[in-house]
Amino acid sequence: xxxRRRTSSVTNSENPPPAITENRPTTVSSPEDFRLAPxxxxxxxxxxxxxxxxxxxxxxFHYNVDDELKRxxxxxxxxxxxxxxxxxxxxxxxxxxxxxxxxFGFDINKxxxxxxxxxxxxxxxxxxxxxxxxxAIIFQFFNFTEDSLWLVEYNAALASICFMILLGFVxxxxxxxxxxxxLLPSFATLPLLMAYAGHTTIVxxxxxxxxxxxxxxxxxxxxxxxxxxxxxxCTNSINIHAGLNGLEIGQTVVIAAAILIHNVMQxxxxxxxxxxxxxxxxxxxxxxxxxTSLAMLAFNWxxxxxxxxxxxxxxxxxxxxxxxxxxxxxETLLIFFLPQVLNFLLSLPQLAGIVKCPRHRLPKFDxxxxxxxxxxxxxxxxxxxxxxxxxxxxxxxxxLLVFQALACAFCFLLRHFLAGWxx
Length: 423
Fold this sequence. Notes:
By secondary structure, the chain is mainly alpha-helical. It has helices spanning 41-62, 67-100, 125-143, 151-174, 178-188, 190-195, 206-212, 221-240, 247-269, 273-300, 309-326, 330-336, 338-351, 380-388, 393-418; strands at 4-7, 104-107, 120-121, 201-203, 216-218, 364-366, 371-373.
């Protein structure tokens, strides 16, 4: 979901168009005349410096990471950097193509202003997804051999992510009802579930061992059900915590940075080669995700020149679910997703049909002041505005991203204080 009003040549009977349907003038007469605003590279430089500096310090200086692991991680980082620049170049090209197919929207949070009358290209998340897959596939040449134990799971992970990109793009084109969206990740996880050969056990928290009578519990097939449910949650939670320029991608890069820091900390602290390889595996997929997402954020930061569409949100959620599952840190991942969990709980009455759910659960925009006011809809965006008062869209997005970063920091503190006692 994004802060947009979709315009297409096909109307979905289960998703009626919004109340405002008048023809709007636009500043674009044809796709050929379209000129995309330049990327906000200075903003990306600041964000990437804040998020990546600690990770690079831990990887290169703080921990004595074996060259056998550090080398492929750095190669992957180099390929990811190439992916960043390729994504930057492809987005303006793809924007013109989607406009030709009338895949654009109007920014609802700017309605009543000149910016609200501009056609904004939509579904540009397909560019991020394609570049991500190409980088991840090319990386296999540098790291995996034909008899590699991780090759099957790596390709299964890419198959699940690719499947989710396809389904997300189908949703952008056909405007699939949200009840169907909930089921789509279940199908996309099938390649991963079928190829998964890792453990299906969980470690019982030490305070509960005396009650359960076991230190390790084998869940068997129930563990795979848990994996599928985690993928469904991560995929949809990014999608519903949205509606502001830069929020979807912003929360993704913050969580991705936390995942990278967590992985390198576990690699540095562990002596078990299997655990170290699992966390390195997670890094191999997270670095391309972060690099390509930062390139998209350069165009999606306020004021947004493109919309990412559901293609990006479901792709990002599935990728993070995959790295959490195969890296064996799903509990930590859920704490990183704390704002998304809170947003889901706030949204549950409307999603369950207990409370009336409008098509766009967005704040109310005042064109005279340029400020957003929270509505009664159950989203974290609206609740934050109701508690802290009216804010501009850019300011609100920054506040929510800071909250996301604080949630990730809380996770690291929690793991530190519970280490040795909880597990």
